[in-house]
């Protein structure tokens, strides 16, 4: 398993370097192989599972499929197999498709638990005499239909110009979040991390409706999704994973100043980026400010987590 992780990490690093030096054919092709490796590893573990995954994880599976389709489209464009006009669909399948579906699938399970609404459940053990209940089967099918609706809305909108499908995507994603995370309830656990998760889900909902209602500012309002939604969730989940797997007390997340600083920097960066098209001659200054704040917040937060990991696993610890 460790060798596979190193191989996958090396492949992703090679992709990033290839894109940085504009070797797009190699980068896009390597990304297809990296994504195929990830799906293969996930599929093997699913086949050998002893416990069934949460109901919402069907959305995560569809997210991986969306990413695979986007990667194939991007690679086909790089190899001049299909027209560059499909580029936007390929990119959006990775961002609005794969990442959004992963957030809905994994967040639908982790969100209520990070907010203090639920405890980790006892999963159903797989066995010939323990078939899934009819109610659970129905829930899985509903989530699968929701994920397919998100995928089809992306293909229809960015592939064939049916921009009204953005409203379908916003409605479906909002319904999944409202039914799983229940963000209208304030966090039961009043920690910085819980507020971060709660705020991020509201930003996901808000951004999808803004993009649908104001397509002229689509690129700008998508940063509410990318920065306000996805980045805040990365901060929250990364902090929880580092603390829990590092053997630290979860009380560190109650008033984590590194997390607070990172979230504040991210939110100001989001406002600067969204406000850029309305700023007149200071448009590029807004973009620069947003980029610097986002990078600074991520670096500060990342260095804090790196310090925790290094301290935990250093020989002197």
Describe this structure in words.
- It is a single chain.
- The protein has 317 residues and is an all-alpha fold.
- It folds into two domains: 49-185; 188-311.
- The chain has helices at residues 2-20, 24-47, 57-78, 87-114, 134-160, 165-180, 192-213, 218-245, 257-275, 283-313.
- α4 packs parallel to α6 and α7 (192-213) runs antiparallel to α8 (218-245).
- The longest helix is centred in the C-terminal third of the chain and has 31 residues, at 283-313.
- The chain is globular and about 55 Å long.
Brief rundown of the structure:
74% of the residues lie in helices and 0% in strands.
Low-confidence stretches: none
Give the helix level as a range of percent. over 70%
Q: What is the terminal-to-terminal distance?
A: 26 Å
How much of the sequence lies in strands comes to: under 5%
- Extended strand count: 0
What is the string of SSEs from the N terminus onward?
HHHHHHHHHH
**Number of separate structural domains:** 2
The best one-word shape is globular
Largest beta-sheet characterization: none
| Rg from alpha-carbon coordinates | 20 Å
Report the average pLDDT across residues.
Answer: 91
| Coarse structural class | mainly alpha
**Number of helical stretches of at least 4 residues:** 10
Keyword list:
single chain; 317 residues; 2 domains; mainly alpha
């Amino acid at each position: 398993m460790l060798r596979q992780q190193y191989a996958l990490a090396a492949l992703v690093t090679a992709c990033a370097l290839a894109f940085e030096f504009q070797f797009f054919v190699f980068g896009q092709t390597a990304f297809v192989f990296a994504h195929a490796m990830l799906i293969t590893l996930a599929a093997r573990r699913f086949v050998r599972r002893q416990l069934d995954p949460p109901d919402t994880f069907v959305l995560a599976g569809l997210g991986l499929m969306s990413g695979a389709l986007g990667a194939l489209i991007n690679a086909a464009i790089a190899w001049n197999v299909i027209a560059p006009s499909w580029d936007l669909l390929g990119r959006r399948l990775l961002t609005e498709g794969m990442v959004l579906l992963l957030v809905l699938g994994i967040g639908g399970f982790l969100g209520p638990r990070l907010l203090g609404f639920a405890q980790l459940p006892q999963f159903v053990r797989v066995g010939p005499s323990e078939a899934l209940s009819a109610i659970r089967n129905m829930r899985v099918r509903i989530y699968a239909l929701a994920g397919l609706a998100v995928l089809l809305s992306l293909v229809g909108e960015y592939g064939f110009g049916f921009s009204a499908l953005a409203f379908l995507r916003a409605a479906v994603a909002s319904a999944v979040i409202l039914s799983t995370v229940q963000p209208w309830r304030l966090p039961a656990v009043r920690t910085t991390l819980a507020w971060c998760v709660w705020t991020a889900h509201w930003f996901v909902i808000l951004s999808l409706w803004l993009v649908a209602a104001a397509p002229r500012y689509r690129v700008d309002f998508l940063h509410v999704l990318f920065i306000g939604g996805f980045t805040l969730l990365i901060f929250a989940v990364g902090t929880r994973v580092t603390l829990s797997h590092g053997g630290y007390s979860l009380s560190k997340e109650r008033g984590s100043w590194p997390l607070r600083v990172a979230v504040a920097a991210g939110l100001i960066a989001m406002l600067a980026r969204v406000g850029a098209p309305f700023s007149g001659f200071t448009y590029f200054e807004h973009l620069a400010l947003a980029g610097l704040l986002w990078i600074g917040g991520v670096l500060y937060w990342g260095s804090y987590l790196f310090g925790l990991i290094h301290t935990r696993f250093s020989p002197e610890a």
